Amino acid sequence: MFNPWLDVTFKTIQLAIDAQSVMMLRMMRLAAGGARAQSEAHRMVLEKIAAFAEAQTAAASAILDGHDDHVVVTKTLGAFDKHVRANKRRLSRG
């Protein structure tokens, strides 16, 4: 009836759009230079490590719980989405 991979596709597209927004906002902050730019560069690296670890944990947990592949991917995307949306909110405020 409903293809669960279609939902995964839409979530992936939305994540890609939000990630592109975050990249643009970060580049603007980095281009401005100064202490905020240096802090953002440092934060960016640490957040990527944390997001990857969280996504890996979410995927492993979903696999161990016996979920279908599309659920594993959705949970993994959700971990990245949480970080991307938080960055988008934070960087949009200025």
Count of helices? 3
What separation lies between the terminal Cα atoms?
A: 45 Å
Q: Which percent bin holds the helix content?
A: over 70%
CA-based gyration radius: 16 Å
Mean pLDDT: 96
Q: Tell me the structural class.
A: mainly alpha
Strand content: under 5%
**Unreliable runs:** none
| Count of beta strands | 0
Spell the H/E element sequence: HHH
Which term fits the overall shape? elongated
Give the biggest sheet. none
Describe the structure.
The chain is 89% helix and 0% strand. It has 94 residues and is an all-alpha fold. Helix 1 packs parallel to helix 3 (69-92) and helix 2 runs antiparallel to helix 3 (69-92). The N and C termini lie far apart (45 Å). The mean pLDDT is 96.
How do the strands and helices of this protein lay out in sequence?
Blueprint: H1 4-32, H2 34-64, H3 69-92
Helix pairs in contact: 1-2, 1-3, 2-3
